[in-house]
Each structure stands twice: as structure tokens, then as C-alpha cells.
Specification:
Elements lengths: L1 H5 L5 H52 L4 H19 L6 H5 L10 H9 L6 H20 L5 H28 L4 H29 L9 H28 L6
């Protein structure tokens, strides 16, 4: 069998190897492009959503000026939105979009809209609607476009590529005088190929995960969340000072 592979003049086996390598490489390149584009969309949507959330905080401060009780309720709802919605990267996007949650209280954005609208939607409604649109774009970017079976297919093709290498190496050894030096070189090449395929698949899987890896938005989102929380804390301190100036305790 090794002699047949070594003297494959028609290159049927080589064509078979090239076909598997081509399919594996094409699938790898497209998978990386799909996952990278999805990650880029997630970054853009997060920046847009946080920008609208900051605009909502500024608008809340304007409409609740001189009414600390009103401001306290609005800020509490915004804090709930930041803590229970914006940070939930691992939640199912479709369920989150439709309002599914483990909490038993009303949607905080809906509460903000109701508190700022009397009879008809107020000016804050437009900001809340923009925030909902940005939230939908963020959830859409979080939705996994590739199933888990896709990575199973990549793993199978990678195993096939690695399994073919010993056959080619054995055929090369049968064509020439078997030497220990050639075997060592082939062993090193096989190890490098195995390492490269394993690292590539691990990187792609890290891109696919919504959170918890070095290629996710966790670090950037944490900075955004801390900035929003600090701004909310600062505005809540202003509300507490307003209650203190009136000689009342904050409810």
C-alpha cells in the first residue's frame, strides 16, 4: 500500500488530500469572516446603546428638575435596565427581546415611559424608543448565526487533515531510503500542524461564545457599565441632597 501511494502517478490520492484541505481552509476562512463581522456589529451596537442610555439620563435629569421623588423613580428604573439587561450577554437574545426574564417586575424602560408620559407620549418616549432600537441591534448581534454542528464539522475536517499526514509521510518514506532524520522532521511537522489546527479552532470557538473569552466584549462592556453606574450614582446623590435640603428622607 505504501508503494502504491509512493508511485501514484495519477495523483488520485494527492487530489483527494487537496480537496479536503481546500474544503477545510475555505470553511475556516468563511467562519472567521462571519464571526468577526458579528463581533464588529456587537461593538457598534453596544456603543450606540450606551450613548442613547447616557442621553436618556441627561433627559431624565432635565424633566425631573425640582422633583426629587420623580427623579428617584426614574433613576432606579434606569439602574435596573443597566444591571438586569445591558449586562446579560449570555441570555438568549430572542427571549430577552420578547421580554422573557427571571425577574417579576415590569420592564424598566416601560416604567420610564409611563412615568414621563401623561395622556400621550412625551419627549422621553422618543429616546426610549431609540434605546429599544439600539437594544434590538445589540441582541441581534448577540444571536448566534452558526450552530454548534458547524464547529463539529470543522473538527471532523481537521481530524481528516491530520489523519492523512501520516499516510503521506509513510509514502514518502517508502519512496526513499528510510532514515531516522526524515522521521524526526515529519514528526515535528505533524506536531506543528496539530498545534496550528487546534489553536485556530479554539480561537474560532472563542469568537462564537457570547461572553467569557478574550475575544468578547466583556472588558469594554464592563468599562461602559461602570461609567453608567457612576453617572447614576452621581445623579442619585444629587437627589439625596435635594431631599436633605427639604429636611426629608429619601423614600
Amino acid at each position: 500500500g505504501l508503494a502504491v501511494l509512493a508511485n501514484d502517478e495519477g495523483q488520485y490520492f494527492q487530489n483527494y488530500v487537496n480537496a479536503i484541505d481546500g474544503m477545510f481552509s475555505l470553511l475556516l476562512v468563511n467562519t472567521f469572516a462571519w464571526l468577526y463581522n458579528q463581533q464588529e456589529q456587537l461593538y457598534v451596537s453596544l456603543f450606540a446603546e450606551v450613548s442613547v442610555a447616557k442621553a436618556l439620563l441627561e433627559q431624565i435629569a432635565y424633566v425631573s428638575r425640582g422633583r426629587p421623588e420623580y427623579a428617584a423613580q426614574l433613576l432606579e428604573n434606569v439602574r435596573r435596565y443597566v444591571d438586569d439587561d445591558l449586562t446579560r450577554l449570555s441570555a438568549e437574545p430572542v427571549t430577552a427581546l420578547l421580554g422573557g426574564s427571571s425577574t417579576n417586575y415590569a420592564d424598566p424602560l416601560e416604567q420610564v415611559m409611563w412615568l414621563t408620559s401623561v395622556g400621550s407620549p412625551g419627549d422621553v418616549y422618543e429616546t426610549v424608543r431609540s434605546l429599544r432600537e439600539a437594544r434590538g441591534q445589540r441582541l441581534g448581534a448577540l444571536q448566534r448565526k452558526l450552530p454548534a454542528a458547524h464547529f463539529g464539522l470543522l473538527a471532523v475536517l481537521g481530524v481528516l487533515v491530520l489523519a492523512i499526514f501520516p499516510l503521506l509521510a509513510a509514502a514518502t518514506g517508502a519512496a526513499v531510503a528510510p532514515e531516522d532524520g526524515l522521521l524526526r522532521v515529519q514528526a515535528v511537522l505533524f506536531g506543528l500542524m496539530t498545534f496550528a489546527i487546534a489553536v485556530t479552532l479554539a480561537v474560532l470557538y472563542a469568537f462564537w461564545m457570547p461572553a467569557g473569552s478574550a475575544y468578547n466584549v466583556d472588558a469594554v462592556l464592563e468599562v461602559m457599565i461602570n461609567g453608567l453606574r457612576e453617572e447614576i450614582d452621581e445623579r442619585e446623590r444629587a437627589v439625596d441632597d435635594a431631599f436633605a435640603g427639604r429636611g426629608e428622607a429619601r423614600p
